[in-house]
Amino acid sequence: MSDGILTFPSTLNTTAIVLALVASLCCLVPLFFRKTVVDKDGNPTPPGPLLRYPFLRKFPELVLDGWAKQFGPLFSLWMGNQLYIVISDQHIARDIFVNNGAIFSSRKNYFIKNQSILRGRAITASQYNDKWRHHRRIAAQFLTPKAVTKYANEIDYEAHILMQTFYTSTAKGAGPVSPQHDTVRYALNVMLIMALGIRTDDSTHPFVDRTLELTLEFNDLTGPLSNVEDFITPLQWIPTTMQKRGRKLHDAFVEVYGGFLLEVKAKLNKGEDVPDCLAKTLILTQEQEGLDWEDMCMLIAVFVLGGVHSTAGIIQWFLALLPAHPEIQRRAHEELDSVIGQDTWPTAEDESRLPYTRAIIKEVLRVHAPFWMATPHYSTEDYVYKGYFIPKNTGVILNCFTLHHDENRYPNAHAFNPDRYIDDHLSCADSAKLSNVMERDHWTFGAGRRICPGMAVAERELWLAISRILWSFTVHEMPNEPISLEEYEGQSGRTPKPFRVRMIPRHDRVHSLLQSRDEITF
Ligand code: HEM
């Protein structure tokens, strides 16, 4: 009897435990394992890794590259509850992003990045809707190639100041330079001139640190595929430090950029002269354009968020690469000396006459794209591509790392070899329009309708900075200070780890050109 009494509940317990386990498994498995979604015609989502991921480990581009090799040029990936497709082939990239731009041009409404910080604004965070079109059109007035030529003198001047800063901070080449801060101030000044009609007149100007602090906080709060909260919805219901920081950053953007807007407004009200800039346009057209204050603050903010670390990062990667390639440096010097000579340095107009120098810039953009995953797009309709189902609301990742290391397109792809671009005479924007996608230079600025609208200004800044560095200096590694080209800083935008180089003036004219230009304040 006692046995029976004991046995019965124990059987019940076992059954209950097994049932509970099965039930838990049924609930848990979908949380951890991928789901293949099939449409009404039996088309499945593209293949991909078995597990779902809350985030990707360090060097996410290498993880995606490994999966592209395993699952092919179109694979799918579950980040928590969000499905992504990852595109690692030029033709598929064109078919999806360009030919089907009407379907694949939105953005996911990320919890921290889009909802908490940018609140659906700043162009990059807007879904594919009228607000996005409207804000992109306003920004484009300052970013098209034609618009950029209006700022030609200012960009030229900032490039001069950058060279001068390298020259003076190294005591005319005698000491080392750590190029991070100076390159960031260069790119920041160009963006400030275009967005607000102001510049910082000293490396120690408090605004340099303040804007950098905000940008770094933005980069820190937003990963390459955004945050774990975006993929595990219940985490959004728990108040976290990330959420608090996101809201604080939003307020800081409004305070800092709104503060500048108010200053511009006050000047305009007093009838004072304000240089043509985005802020002036926004204030003068606010009513007619139907913009609210946050729209305006975020439009200013995106010039600094999108246009500073990206451009400065490419100049830093260039300086990090150069000492390891004396032969490339020598060839560039030869080209500059024979085409430009040593009496004067290269200007924007000389670009087409210096194909090797141009090729170096394209190669840096390929090898060290700041955003290996561009900025993921988001689909707004169900779509079937070559038998694979891509449901509405799928994230779409342009796998730039794998695309940029495709041996069919870039033989010996891991080598830094500017010669591969020697016959490429197109700007990045024009190259992106080529019908033969295998001739396109690279994917560093993204693709399709969301392609970076800042390409023309970025290219102008890169040209003036890099061609003048090459004209002015030879760049050397510091003894016992190897420069890492594998490690990098930043989640949503990569820059090299801090490093120092020597920049030695190449000839006498460098000294006379770089001794005496005054910093302008306006
Ligand atoms: C070397 C410099 C730069 C690089 C590598 C770069 C790269 C990118 C990439 C990869 C995207 C995402 C494209 C996509 O979704 O397909 C993007 C978007 C964007 N970039 Fe740039 N960018 C650079 C400079 C600039 C500059 C100077 C600005 C000036 C304001 C700028 C403003 C923007 C904006 C507003 C977007 C959002 C576009 C949209 O969502 O419609 N970028 N950029």
TrEMBL record:
InterPro entries the record matches: Cyt_P450, Cyt_P450_CS, Cyt_P450_E_grp-I, Cyt_P450_sf, Cytochrome_P450_fung
Subcellular location: Membrane
A Gene Ontology cellular-component term: membrane
Associated pathway: Secondary metabolite biosynthesis
Membrane-spanning intervals of the chain: 12-33, 296-319
Keyword annotations: Glycoprotein, Heme, Iron, Membrane, Metal-binding, Monooxygenase, Oxidoreductase, Transmembrane, Transmembrane helix
Keyword Iron included in the entry's annotation: yes
Membrane topology: Single-pass membrane protein
Cofactor: heme
GO MF: heme binding; iron ion binding; monooxygenase activity; oxidoreductase activity, acting on paired donors, with incorporation or reduction of molecular oxygen
Keyword Glycoprotein: yes
Pfam families, A to Z: p450
Family: Belongs to the cytochrome P450 family.
Protein's UniProt name: Cytochrome P450
Organism: Cristinia sonorae
